[in-house]
Amino acid sequence: MPNKRQRCFVIMPFSKTTEHHTTTYWTDHFDDFLKPLIEENPELGAYRSKPLRVDILREIITNLVVSPVVVADLTDSNPNVYWELGIRQSFKHGTVTIAEAGTSLPFDISVKGTLFYHPGDHIQTAKFRRDFKEAIEDCLSNPDKPDSHVLETVAGRGTLFEIFRRDEALRRLEAMLSECVRNLDVLEDVIYKAKANQAEPKKRIYATGRFRVAAAELLVTNRYIDEDQAFYKSIESYVNSMVAWCEQLNLWEYSPDMTEQWFLKYQAGAKKLITKTKQQVEAARDKVRDQL
Fold this sequence. Notes:
Layout: E1 6-11, H1 23-38, E2 44-48, H2 54-66, E3 69-73, H3 79-91, E4 95-100, H4 107-110, E5 114-117, H5 122-141, H6 149-154, H7 160-199, H8 214-222, H9 229-251, H10 256-289
Parallel strand pairs: 1-2, 1-3, 3-4, 4-5
Helix pairs in contact: 2-3, 7-8, 7-10, 8-9, 9-10
């Protein structure tokens, strides 16, 4: 059984664009010229775009996003063609742009290498066929080779994607720093009340605040900043310690004297750990700030 061919999706006009380029012309252009040429590559099956309607819009967008190769014929500057090309280049590389010789391309497209075909010129057509097939094969062999200015702008180090990623990391790290400051306040309140209760057991009061670890857990699980294993082990230890303190707070009213003694015994270690964690996160935040 032959291998299933990968999809090569062709963006092109589907109705009359000029007196010469009629609906029949475009149908023949695909059926008699582009489709056979594309399918000379045994890995590909050629499919063309269809008139935009609500019921097939999802299908067209899916084809534009998932097809390993897309061919866009820019002849006559058809709006639908440019709309579909914009979608493709927002999601994936692997696009070959072609046009009939004499087509005037807008600046943002002209800087991309477009192959021009010459109807009725055997020599030029032969050259186009060679170049076109090479471009198709290159898309299959090098799927991540950049050919989209959009993706080159929004993905990769130093680009919009990296800026968004950095800003999101900074917001998360600031949230964790705020969490550390709050936990120091909670610890201070717990120790104050534990000491007061030990001095006057009959007038016991209990802390209602709890240690927070949501931001720290997010850092440990997502590892959204580039730090070494030692850093993440330290954050994990911090999370485990805060969870243990929360468990003791929940036991306080049921075993007050023992719990208060536990608080007082481990208070120095807890304060040191929270402070150290805060300093580590501050250093990580400063490093992220300096990345761009």
